[in-house]
Specification:
Monooxygenase; alpha/beta; 2 domains; 6 strands; globular; 10 helices; ubl conjugation pathway; Leu-rich_rpt_Cys-con_subtyp; Leucine-rich repeat, LRR (right-handed beta-alpha superhelix); about 40% helix; six-stranded parallel sheet; F-box_dom; about 230 residues
C-alpha cells in the first residue's frame, strides 16, 4: 500500500511523529500530503530551539495552537543571556541580527492564536513587558506562562498578569532579575490562586538604578537594626 492510500486520520497520526522539517519535506511530494501538512489539527503544539527556526516556513500558526515553547539551549545561540561586555564579536553580531525575531513572532501569535493555553520562554533576552501584555490581552485562555532568564521583563509584566491573566494558573519568572519582591507580592495578593515561582529573580541585582538604590536602602536599614 502506498502512503497516499491511507485515510486522512492515519496520515495525521503519521505526521504527528515527525519534526517540522520532516513534515515540510514530506508535504512537498504530493498535493494530498500537502493538505495534511496544512491541517490545523497538526499544529496544536510548537517547540523551537533557535531563532533561525522561527524564520523557517515549516509550520503553521492558527487558532489550533494550544502550547508554544521557545527555549534557547545551545551555547552558540544562548547569547542573549549574558551581558554585552561579556560577548565576543560573533555573539554580538548574532544577538543583533535576531533582536526582534522572537518579539515579532509572538506578535504574530497574538493575532493568529487566540486559544493559546501555555507559553514557555527561556533565554529570550529581548522580550519586553509590552510583548507579554499583548499576549495576555489577545490570549484570554492562557493558563500557564513560564518565563526564564528573560532579562527585560519587569514588574509591568506582573501588573499585566493581575489585570489580564484571569485564566492564568501557573506563572514562572525564574532568573528574571528586573522584577522586584514588591511586584511578586502584588501578584500573590491579587491572584492568590496562581501558582507563582520566581527562583533567583527578585533576590538578584536588577539592572535599573532605582531598584538598586532600594536594595541598598533595605540593606542599610537591616544593618542599623543589628
Amino acid at each position: 500500500m502506498h502512503i497516499t492510500q491511507l485515510n486522512r486520520e492515519c496520515l495525521l497520526h503519521l505526521f504527528s511523529f515527525l519534526d517540522k522539517n520532516s513534515r515540510k519535506n514530506l508535504a512537498k511530494t504530493c498535493r494530498k500530503l500537502l493538505e495534511v501538512f496544512q491541517d490545523p489539527l497538526l499544529w496544536s503544539r510548537l517547540n523551537f530551539h533557535s531563532p533561525v527556526e522561527l524564520e523557517k516556513n515549516n509550520f503553521l500558526l492558527g487558532p489550533a495552537l494550544k502550547h508554544l515553547s521557545i527555549c534557547w539551549y545551545s551555547e552558540r545561540v544562548k547569547v542573549c543571556n549574558i551581558e554585552d561586555w561579556m560577548k565576543n564579536s560573533f555573539q554580538k553580531d548574532f544577538c543583533k541580527r535576531h533582536e526582534n525575531t522572537v518579539s515579532d513572532f509572538l506578535l504574530d501569535v497574538c493575532n493568529r492564536c487566540p486559544n493559546l493555553l501555555s507559553l514557555t520562554l527561556s533565554g529570550c533576552g529581548h522580550i519586553t513587558d509590552n510583548c507579554i501584555l499583548q499576549l495576555l490581552k489577545n490570549c484570554p485562555n492562557l493558563k500557564s506562562l513560564k518565563l526564564e532568564n528573560c532579562v527585560r521583563i519587569t514588574d509591568h509584566t506582573l501588573e499585566a498578569v493581575t489585570l489580564h491573566g484571569a485564566s492564568l494558573q501557573t506563572l514562572h519568572v525564574d532568573f528574571c532579575r528586573n522584577i522586584t519582591q514588591a511586584g511578586l507580592e502584588r501578584v500573590r495578593e491579587k491572584c492568590p490562586s496562581v501558582m507563582l515561582r520566581a527562583e533567583r529573580s527578585a533576590n538578584m541585582m536588577p539592572d535599573s538604578k532605582p531598584e538598586k538604590k532600594l536594595m541598598l536602602e533595605k540593606a542599610s536599614r537591616k544593618l542599623v537594626q543589628l
